[in-house]
Design brief:
By secondary structure, this protein is an alpha+beta fold. The protein has three domains: 71 residues, 2-Layer Sandwich (Dna Ligase, domain 1), CATH 3.30.1490; 115 residues, ATP-grasp fold, B domain (D-amino Acid Aminotransferase, Chain A, domain 1, 2-Layer Sandwich); 150 residues, Succinyl-CoA synthetase domains (Rossmann fold). Helix content is 39%, strand content 26%. Strands 7, 8, 9, 10, 11 and 12 form a six-stranded antiparallel sheet that branches. β10 and β11 form a beta hairpin. The longest helix has 15 residues. The protein is globular, with a radius of gyration of 24 Å. The relative contact order is 0.09.
């Protein structure tokens, strides 16, 4: 579960990390007053859960209150990588002396956390790592030990961070642990002209499995997320919005991830990740199709199911009943394999729905879905 920047900075403040004064609004007229409270100038930042905001024009410096209102109005009308901008954050400008990058991320393969840091912050860290890998330090962190002052000092030495960054790193680790986060990132971490270390931007990904311990963020998710993700969450669906034209529905996270790759390899872009789990009932199929088809960017849908606990004929029966409830207007490609696949395909064949197409393999289904997306 990704947080917006203004939510991340709230966590930082609660753990003693310095951030610039800022306010969030969805009304351009309010931006004028906010900028006036900041002394006239303000940095206007689109609040979307995606990177590349600056390159897309979603982060701009307003020179006066009138400019802040005009800039907020322009940014609020943007869509950045498929994410509509519904709120902006206005932050007080900071006199920057130097910029750095720091983050902690879960390294699942190694069963530990990884501290990633660089003295070259303020840019795309992926680009820095590709061009000059020696400029990015990677320091393993034992989750049982955590980031002690000694470990923080090691990270500072390895990455070439300023000496005062050790305390900052300890505090950032507390954000990760106490908030059940999988990722905390600050880019840039800046040293101001007054010598203060300050988080100018933040990214936090919380572990959805820990929502029972973090009730306030579970509630925040519903009220602030993309409308499709919020609608899916309300139905109990495991859905993630992506920037593409082929809607993807499958049973099992691994199968869905593989399907996304195959769709991309077929020359199309997946529009979402939707795992309906092992029990693909008529209601679940109906809910899933309803969410996916309500995405205006979807031009075709690929349903990829491997029958196991739930047999394919039961899945097919669920699709038939779901079609009556959803009444689709976009082509749907179905690939069934596994338990009772032949019976399931026969059920769909007998339906003879003009928008439902079947494919024998995942590759064939992805190619067909991609072709239909480009021609529908």
């Amino acid at each position: 579960m990704d947080l917006y920047e203004h939510q991340a900075r709230q966590l930082f403040e609660e753990h003693g990390i310095l951030v610039p004064p800022a306010e969030v609004t969805d009304a351009p007229g309010e931006a004028r007053g906010i900028a006036r409270r900041f002394g006239g100038r303000a940095v206007v930042k689109a609040q979307v859960k995606t990177g590349g905001r600056g390159k897309a024009g979603g982060v701009r410096l307003a020179e006066d209150p009138e400019d802040a209102e005009r800039t907020a109005r322009e940014i609020l009308g943007m869509t950045i990588k498929g994410h509509p901008v519904r709120t902006v954050m206005l932050a007080q400008p900071v006199d920057i002396e130097a910029e750095f990058y720091v983050s902690y991320v879960l390294d699942r393969a190694a069963g530990r956390f990884l501290a990633i840091a660089s003295a070259e912050g303020g840019t795309e860290i992926e680009e820095v790592a590709a061009a000059r890998p020696e400029a990015v330090a990677r320091v393993p962190v034992d989750p049982a030990e955590g980031v002690t002052p000694e470990k923080a000092a090691e990270i500072v030495r390895t990455a070439g961070l300023p000496p005062g960054a050790a305390d900052f790193l300890v505090r950032l680790w507390q954000v990760l642990i106490r908030e059940d986060a999988l990722l905390v990132e600050v880019n840039p971490l800046v040293r101001t002209a007054q010598g203060q270390l300050m988080a100018l931007d933040g990214k936090v990904t919380l572990d959805g499995n820990a929502r029972y311990r973090q009730a306030r963020w579970a509630e925040q998710r519903i009220s602030h997320e993309d409308p499709l993700e919020a609608a899916a969450a309300a139905k109990g669906l495991n859905y993630v919005k992506l920037d593409g034209e082929v809607g993807v529905i499958g049973n099992g996270a691994g199968l869905v991830m593989s399907t996304l790759d195959v769709v991309a390899g077929s020359g199309a872009r997946p529009a979402n990740f939707l795992d309906i789990g092992g029990g693909a009932s008529a209601r679940i199929m109906s809910d899933g199709l309803s969410v996916v088809l309500s995405d205006p960017g979807v031009r075709s849908v690929l349903v990829n199911v491997f029958g196991g606990i739930t047999a394919c004929d039961a899945v097919a029966d669920g699709i038939v009943r779901a079609l009556d409830a959803v009444r689709p207007t976009k082509p749907i490609v179905v690939r069934l394999d596994g338990n009772n696949a032949a019976r399931g395909r026969a059920v769909l064949g007998g339906l003879a729905h003009p928008l439902v197409h079947q494919a024998a393999t995942m590759d064939d289904a992805a190619r067909l879905a991609a072709r239909l997306a480009h021609t529908s």
